[in-house]
């Protein structure tokens, strides 16, 4: 019986790495602190051992070795010899690997300059990268250039914006009991987050190309059916509902929005006019959508259309039924419900399910 169980674990664990096949970079983001993001990272590193040349970096540094709230020790990141890491100077000193310095980057953080090093021995590392997406992109490109077959970006707490396809090619979302004592709340929020991140993308290649151009030139643009363009003079999309509706007419086909699309924006648009109906609102990608499920349902129900210009590839969801706050979920129910509600693979990397 035990042999069968172990074989099942190996089979399931290998599937996560299989899901990353074809991607050169992946980010791991968390629904909450202690949701199992570092456990997921270690899991992927372990499965890639001896199979892929890995590069690791992170978005900032997510906390301390000991969680200040729960007084529990956080999981450490263990790498094998040959792994490349991009981390802050102080973090490099905190790592117990023998290392070779490959490159200094000139990127400064509160914990020192970001340094790229190669592990000359197996061991624990402390990863603390930059907090600016353009710097992360540059580091990822450099790691790939020096031979990394897969670059993993450890996303900081709730920094979902770094799941953007502009940063990494794929994303793993970690969720867990630490998010809420209510299993239903965790499941509903996770499903909604996945739905936002995987919002349907625009399939008209001409519009996608035009929209990507407009994003660089204006906060908000209206594209007509005849491909005429109105660039709205607004500082931010958050308070732009009236400007948007004033510039909509029967010839309007798309509204291209740079930055966040919020609950307030959609609610204000619905209150001020019905001219938004049958017009497609385009966000840069799913990380820019900060809309609750009720608002989104209402907007679509009343004829609004919401799509993204650049789609996000979520490879899988990992779940952690244990909470450091002293409670846990029934693992079979938690895992089963998530798998039932989501159209992407879900794994319990803690229990091997």
Q: Determine the mean pLDDT.
A: 88
Uncertain segments are: 1-14, 63-72
Structural class: alpha/beta
- The domain count comes to 2
Query: Strands across the major sheet, in which order?
Result: 5-6-4-2-8-1-9-17-18
Which architecture name of the largest domain does CATH use?
3-Layer(aba) Sandwich
Oligomer: single chain
Rg from C-alpha positions? 22 Å
Write down the secondary-structure element order: HEHEEEHEEEHEEHHEEHEEHEEHEEHE
Query: Biggest sheet, in brief?
Result: 9 strands, mixed
What is the rounded distance between the termini? 16 Å
DSSP helix count? 10
Share of helical residues? 25-40%
CATH top level assignment of the largest domain: Alpha Beta
Summarize this, please?
This protein has ten helices and 18 strands. The protein is an alpha/beta fold. It folds into two domains: 2-198 and 312-347, Rossmann fold; 205-308.
Describe this structure in words.
The protein contains 10 helices and 18 strands. It is of the alpha/beta class and 353 residues long. The strands form 4 sheets. The protein has a 9-stranded mixed beta sheet, with helices on both faces. A hairpin with a 2-residue loop joins strand 5 and strand 6. Helix 1 crosses helix 2 and helix 5 packs parallel to helix 10. The N terminus is likely disordered.
Helix and strand layout, with pairings?
Elements lengths: L1 H18 L5 E6 L6 H12 L5 E5 L18 E3 L4 E5 H6 L4 E11 L2 E8 L3 E3 L7 H13 L4 E5 L15 E7 L6 H15 L7 H11 L4 E5 L4 E4 L8 H6 L5 E6 L3 E2 H10 L7 E4 L5 E2 L2 H9 L3 E4 L5 E7 L10 H11 L4 E2 L6
Parallel strand pairs: 1-8, 1-9, 2-4, 2-8, 9-17, 12-14, 13-15, 14-16, 17-18
Antiparallel strand pairs: 3-7, 4-6, 5-6, 10-11, 10-12
